[in-house]
Amino acid sequence: MKASPVAVPFRGAKKNSPRPPALARAVAVACITMTTLAACGSGGGLDEANPEAVAAAKAAAERTLAGHASGNTESQAPSTTEPIANDGPTNRADTPDDRESIVGRVAGGDEAEPGAGSSDTVAAVNRVDTLISDMDLMNDITLKGVNASHGFATGPGHVIMGNNPRGTNTPDWYKRSYPWLATDSYWNYLLPWFVHFEGEGNQASNTRIEMRNMRVFMKRRSNGEWSQVNRSQSVGAIECAQASNYFECPLSGDVRKEAEGVSALPLAGHNLHGWWGSREYVEGWDIAAVVVTLQARLGVHATNGVDDRSKARYLVQVGADYYPSDGSPEAVLPAVGISRAKLLTSEWQSISMTTLSDVGKQEPGGGITAAELRASPPPLD
Question: Residue 33 falls within a domain, yes or no?
Fold first, then answer.
């Protein structure tokens, strides 16, 4: 039975935390996806019938966050004004997603050549078809070390709070666990995040994951127009053990600045979970749709070492969280939505989360239809 779908760690710091907004980024998925935890009820939230477990979980979160106050790594990624080749949207409905060709090669034991074709690297880095497929398809390959019952373990994309950022538009387990947040008040802050996964069959040890151009677009109800929300290019990250409950992630992530964005060397047995920028103000009542998109590829770690990118099985997933205020919350947060996990090659490709109302899993969801997205896409270029 699948657990609740939210796929990655979320914040659990107290509101009066002195850390900068970016440091308040999630250190825990807690019970959002982990229905097997002792502290969780059958619905995936903290079990109010188990106060000892709840207290222990909160104490663990506070210890973890305290450790990150001085140990977190943040890297300032260079902004770029140069256009990205083939980074434009398209309304073509006849462009096939050939992601299955990659999955077939991997499943068959063949080594995927660096730059092997994917759903968005041959004709374009980003396009509307890719936005839709990133919410519709399953993960490309099995995630190594991850509990198969977790919602992010298989995919597809999930729309959680979607385009209705209020506590009343959260999963039932969340409203039971945090009734003081289940109000009609709008949550007017948003923070995008990403997660790196190691896939089954990975044999690379000299391969980095490179990232650039994480963008958040919001479509307004008031005028139907898209605008870019995020401004800061700072990147912070933590390392979470693959087999952990994702509630305690005591290791700071090592993110390196590159000519184009940032990169990280995967740490054995861990998944890097990071955030791009800091919480940005959004007018919750005016949100019709949200798109979070990031470009990623494989790079060589040590240039004097072996280029083993063809043996790499690394995936990336993206999403975002709403915040009820521009401060650290007293509870874990459900996501705006999460994308599927996509297998990387040595060519830039996009990974995107879109709040679609008719694609992916709605829990509870809310957004625009795929047809509406095609008719009026965000300015991806």
Answer: yes
Q: Are 208 and 276 in contact (CB under 8 A)?
A: no
Please state, in angstroms and rounded to a whole number, the distance separating the CA atoms of residues 378 and 381.
9
When mean pLDDT is compared over 113-122, 225-234, 267-276, 295-304, the highest value belongs to 295-304
358 touches 310 (CB < 8 A): no
Instruction: For residue range 286-323, list pLDDT tens digits in order.
Output: 999 999 999 999 999 999 999 999 999 999 999 999 99
> How far is it, in rounded angstroms, from Cα 292 to Cα 215?
6
> Closest Cα partner for 334 from 154, 161, 149?
161
How far is 28 from 271, CA to CA, in rounded Å?
13
By residue range, what is the domain housing residue 70? 21-375
- How many helices and strands (H and E) does the chain possess? 5, 17
Place of tokens 């459900």: 334
User: Can you give the pLDDT at residue 381?
Assistant: 67
Give how far the C-alpha of residue 293 lies from the chain's centroid of Cα atoms, to the nearest Å: 9
> Is residue 255 one of the residues assigned to a domain?
yes
- Please, what is the Cα angle at 48 between 163 and 61, to 5 degrees? 70
Alpha helix ranges (H) inside the chain: 51-71, 99-107, 128-136, 172-177, 370-375
Model confidence pTM above 0.85: no
What is the total count of domains within the chain?
1
Token pair in block for residue 241: 């053990």
pLDDT tens-place string over residues 247-266:
668 888 899 999 999 999 99
